[in-house]
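Below is just one:
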Amino acid sequence: MEFNLSELQQLRELHIELDNLVEKLQTAHSSLETALGKVFLFLADKIKISSLFVETPDENLNHQVFSFGNCDDNIKRKVPQLHQVTRAINFNFNATLWYAQPIEMAGKVTGSIAIAFEHDVTPDKKMGAALLDCVSELLDNFFFSIHSSSLKHSLIMGVQSALKNHSIEDSIDGAVYVLKKEVPFKKLIILYSDHELTGQESLNYLVYEEDQRIHDSTGNPHPGLEALIKGNGNCLSADTETLKKAIGSENVTITYLLDGLIEEDLIGKVIFVPEEGHSFSIFAREIVQVFAETLRQRLVDFNRERNMLRKFFPDRVIKRLIAEPGYEKLYLTPRDEQIGIIFADISGFTKMSEQILKTPERITNLVDTWANGIVNKVFPLEACLDKIVGDCLIFLFGPPFYEASPGDIVAKVLESARIIVDFTNEFLRSPENIDIQKHPDFEKFGVAIGVNFCPAVVGLIGPNDDLTAFSSGMNITARLQGLAKANQILATEKVREIGLAAGKWQFIGPESAPVKNVEKPLVYYHVKPAEK
């Protein structure tokens, strides 16, 4: 295609001036319709077009038709040549000559663009096609930037929406499905930590091929990652070469998920194995970064939520709770229920602290070790922790699901009380407490326990949303614990009434004690295992 000097000069000027205009429109973040309107006015003045027609996805990725000048609805409806253009064409319609060609993005036809001239100002067909080609070339960048930004926004919204799913694993599944639409990965591995109340870490992982989860740490283990966890204990601390070996791939891209601004804490890793012969484009890397950041925040919230629940419940209960949308309203809002209660307090703790332990560090370490040991022992019996007050542990039985019968609750209360007594004796006789064993009153040290079964208002209560219970029965249980001596378990009449049916316990008594502001004395029983 040959042009004379004048035509070449016209094309060059058009290219320079339109390029400057498009750059200004991009810098100003003009909408597609506004930008095309200004382009039409420029072209009408510069090369005397009478109409501009553009069919392309808009900012919301919806297919739209934009028309300016004499391109009225009659033309848009009755001129099929303007739609589904697959190659450069020209045609006459109503005393105008049209030039049209497809709009392509990444080798795919996404729409069409056309300009029209009145017959009295029509350039020859060779020049008309060249003018449109120049316009289309410069607008392609604008179309692509809008398409790219819109697609990125759509993907970001899709990833963020998917990660709002209440189930952490289901939410990641959905986000990976969205991600795979535009990011060419062959395999994706997500490692994330689960910070426990004890300060330890357990590691979870999800392994995807394409957009399908094929392995996970809970139901379908990955041999390489399992071997690494058993060897290292924590894949998050493993170096890149070790991770490559575990997942069986040399070509990986790793993104680190960090929590904290001043002291950064590694909470996860996202490992991509790209498709063969592919590397991530800038666009793909931006989407991956958004995915990683959204996932990081989701994991931070996930850990925060689990750690809040871990103050009260065992992991088995937490897993069931967080699997149900709206679990707080369903199970944790205050409600009046029949529950089992344990108050357990170290007998002689004040003397122990003043005469033996003495330093705050030693006192704190003893209480923490003792309390954590007991929690680990009784949580499997469906206990939940109301609170720790000094050296006193308060457990509730029944929350949060209230599905157990009174007989089952009382059985677990009494079994837990026995476990607490046995563990405390073992703990006080352990080598780390040799200084306590040397005290002349060592035999008076132990745990004093009160147990009860009664109605109470139970739920997340107070400014910190702590799980707790309120009732006169809680006060009675505290009073029983105060009456108990080392290694004694004192129970109410209701516990005795229900517990006798099991035949596993002796209830020695009754005994009674006055209760402040209560007319009748408190009747209670000493609990011991039944004689065989």
The longest strand covers residues 446-461. The chain has three domains: 5-154, 168-310, 315-529. The CA atoms of residues 344 and 449 lie 4 Å apart.
